[in-house]
Input
Amino acid sequence: MTTHNPLPLTDTNVAHPEPSTLVLVSRPLRPGTNTDRLSRFGQDRWDIDPAIFEDHFCAHSINFATIPPPLRHEVKIYFWQLLNHTGAARLRGGNSRPSVRTVMAALGLLRPLLAWMNERSLTSFGQVTNPMLDDYLLALAEEPIRLQMKYQRLMEVKRLWSYRTALPEDMRLPSSPPWGGEESFEIFGRTVNYIENRTPRIAELTMQHLLWWAIRFVDDFAADILTAYSEHLTLHAQEPQERARTGRSARPPHGDVPRRLDDYAARLRNHGGCLPGTLDDNGDTVVDWHHIGLIIGAVGDTLGRTAAGRRVLELGLEVSDQADLDTPITALLDGQPWRDRPISYHEAPKMAQLLSTACFVVIAYLSGARPGEVLNLQRECLEYDAANDLWLMQGLYFKNAVDTDGNKLPAGQQRRVPWVVIDIVAHAIGVLEQLHPQPLLFPTWLQPERRTHNLKRQGKARTSTTIARDITRFVTWVNDECRRRGRTDAIPEDPNGGLNASRFRRTLAWFIRRRPRGLIAASIQYGHAHTRMLQGYAGTYESGFPDDYAFEDWLYRLENIADDHRALDASEHVSGPAADAYRQRVTAADGQFTGHVLTNIRQTRDLLGNPLLQIHHGDGMTCVFDPAHAACQIRGTAGDPLVTPDLDDCRPKCRNIARTDRDIEVIQDRHDSLAEVLADPLAPPIRHDREKHEFQRLAKILETHRRSAKDETL
Output
């Protein structure tokens, strides 16, 4: 193995590659990379996986074989410079060198230009003129593709131009910028709405049931599965190939096998056990001698034909239809054992994988972390802060991890502030650390001996694709079990398509905003999870979660504003000290925000600070929020656009309170219930006095509302 010393290329040391030149000559490589196997410039497929540090990414390569032959060599020179050059002019909002994954995507986005050039018999970028680029723009404008894709294709042409000084002179685009240097929105006359294509959130009932079952696995079933899987691994170590791999003797001492087999059969007979079985080609149950060999440490093809084997058969022991493990089923589901029979030897790895998937769902969903960040978590990432009673989850982040020049740091960065997670997340991490001994919590394979199954892909974590497939398998297992048991809590199909972790963050933001009192596990509520998360990394701007929450908050407030405006149009009466402010805000907000289009999700954080949107509906009251006059303990700081009132701490004399007819209906129901309590002669005096005081307070509110409504009609 040779040593790799990255040497960034700039305009002062531009190099032009030879066929034997390394493709990743100036890129940092993953530790342990075999540099003797690195791709060379002369190859038509470049393996760039050694420059990808995220463990959850699939194998990456760039294939030039599909590029028209007359253009292929120039394209390879350009992409070699994209990977290695650092002195190109920056694109607007860009950096001095694109990330490896950006380079990968660039080939697909540049391919239409290459096809367009090939159709016109252009064999070099140096033959392209600005009028030709205008023609290409006209052709691109007529294509039936999304505006965002047109933006991206134009950007790749601009990137090619920005690298002109890194290319040979006969390969350079014209010296003047393409299309006069105009921005894409100026060229097309339209701005991309990046919100319209956001990943959809998971349907409410689907997410609820998925989370419930994941928590059941982590909280209830984990102990049984962990014990069964440990037993499976112990038996698996007796397989001949495992003995050979670990250098242990393949068979026990001579003459010891009959004694072991007799002892095993005696234990079964004394405890009423069954012989492990399997189904033959005809579907008949037969003794699984291979599994018996694993148990007694003597795997062989002739075990059943030995004298000891015949003695076992003569005992007349019942034969199971599977190779059950000895692990008992101890966990309960609705008061009954969660399984009708023990976990089998061949089923244990599947159950272990289901448990791993359940842990992923719990951690990824309830932490607010990005899926890739969760998949890259390592052992001992969890720390307990006893002084503040907080669980802290530490790890790497990759998105927005950049150096001082704005270039992506391929190895990521340790986050400055850890995630603060709730107990069930901490428990899930603990379960994973018991499930396997590997460094990453979500390794490609749980079984250590299978870690080298793919020599090309260097990442050792499960990929986003495989974890999505795992979630699908988890749902399938749950729903099959529900059908078999006649349960009604199956995980319903999501109308927006397959479940994947990229949809978790927006779904969590929706639940926190819309269902803050919804139970996650036991007495833990979404509001509690949100409070914990905001104390850690999920509450920082780098995590991106505040943007997801702000977007959901924005949508929710707009829906409420629309409902409020319709109610006012229908002559709904409003009372309370903030009644006038309420009417003014609702009317103005409906006019200002109806039809409003967001071009960037981060705009929502600023828009939420608009006073017109500071209307929050509580239980029997509406808060027309003004932090300066709030009597409650507000959530957040006054300068934060996400600051909200604590509606659970609403104070009766607060100047921000307004009461709509809808609020009055809630108060009237509460007033009527108290009237029944006060009419009970057996009510304790202390309770009677307390409820009488509340009854009189509510009566005053009702009378004030009715009187003001009457005055308004005069």
Summary: Residues 11-188 form one domain. The longest strand covers residues 382-385.
